[in-house]
Structures are given as C-alpha cells and as structure tokens.
Amino acid sequence: MNQYILPLVMALDILIVAFLFYRLYILIRDTRAALMLNGFLVILLAGLFARWLGFTTVSWIVDSLRTVWAIAFIVLFQHELRAALAQIGRNRLVGRFLRVKEDTGYIQEVVRAVGDLKRAGLGALIVIERETGLRNYAENGVLLEAEISAELLETLFTPPSPLHDGGVIVRGNTVVAARVILPLSESGRGEAHLGTRHRAALGISEESDAVVVVVSEETHKVSLCEHGILDRDLDQATLRQELIQRLAPPEEKVEPVDADLKAPKQI
What we know:
Layout (H helix, E strand, L loop, with lengths): L1 H27 L3 H22 L2 H9 L1 H11 L1 H13 L1 H6 L7 H16 L3 E5 L6 H4 L3 E6 L2 H7 L10 E5 L2 E7 L15 H12 L3 E5 L6 E5 L2 E3 L4 H12 L11 H4 L5
Parallel strand pairs: 1-3
Antiparallel strand pairs: 1-5, 2-4, 3-4, 5-6, 6-7
C-alpha cells in the first residue's frame, strides 16, 4: 500500500511547492521586489555551485549567513508578505471557516475628508483598492503605509504639501501611497469638461476593480468612478451610501429604504 501512497504524497508535495512559488511570482512580478528576489536566487545558486565545486570556505559563508538571509527576506518583502496573507484571509474558502468581520470604518474617514476638501475648494483623487492589486502604481508614488484618517487625507491634498499632486491609494484602513501617477483614460479625452483627475479616475477604474473618489477643484463637485463609469455630483450622504454598497461586506450593506415607507402617514 505504501508503495502507491508515497509517490502520491511526493507529487502532492511538489505541486504545493510549485503553487507557492507561482503565487509568489504573481505577487512580485513587475515590481522592485522581483529584482531583489533575483539577487537572492543568484546568492543561493552561487552557494550550491560552490558546494558542488568543493569551495569549502564559500559554502561555509553561505551556510553561516542562512539565518541572516531569512531575516533579510522578511524585511525586504514585508509588503508582499503582508499582501499575500491578506489575500489568503480574503479567500472565500477560508472565510467559510473563519468568519472575520471586515472593518469598514475607513469609509467614514474617506467621506469626512471628501466633505472637508470640497468645502475648502481643494481637489482630491482617492483610489480604494479591492481585489485587483495596485502595487505597481503605488510604487511610482511615495509609499506611506499609514493608518487612514480624515485628517491625513486632508493634509495630503492640501497645498503646499509636496504630496498633493497625483492620487492616493487606500487599502482597507491603510493609506498605501500618495502622489501616485495613474493612467489617463482615452475614452474621456473627447469630453472637454473632464479634467486630469477625472480621466485618471476613469483610467485606473478601467484597468482594475478599484473604486475611485474624485473631488473637483474647479467645480467643487464629488464624483465616484467604477469600471469606467463616472457618477457625478454626489452629496456626502449619497457618497457614503454608495461606498458602503460597493465596498462593505454583504452583512454590513445598507438596503435602500422605500420613499413611501419613510414618508409620514397623513391623518
């Protein structure tokens, strides 16, 4: 019996390792982390090659630094490892066994910041990440990894802050990066009334599943963009309801109330 089970176990072991390396590659491709991983692989291959050639001293150095390599790997790839763990936690299969209630307090912080920026006549471009990772865009800006708050968002978009240009990427309760350069949509080029912020919102929403909030510096109006569709001139209450409907888990979503039910009965 064992002679049949052992090959299956070995095959399963190889498949699991191959899957883990594949997921790691997906996470870090086209990023600076990929270059660092290449450096680690070169060092690893050099150690194996030195051992094969009988270079005792080089092999000893590589073996002695093994713990240092592991710590360096964790430090250098902390953002990627954090994203991988978060992705595992969002997996539906895992969610069936571990019911973790997602904190959506960041929605209120975004809405509050948008209201204050609108009243101050300041523009803003807030990209809220969902399933599609925006790491490649975040890395062309200034990485923050700061806890979200309305005050932080207002500060980032208030001149003469050096980070007020470009967009801000939000992932859950974290402001990932500021001064992010986003792709401009070609579909909105013919609309003269669409500024750079709105075209950038359309562009990133066409390339990902992100939800984007735009505050116009010229008209002082708030827009919401998703899947290349722009909903304009939203008030604060409508913006909050739309963000909850699009971002909150199903059990936290607010169902719209029928206008007839809200109206008082006439006696």
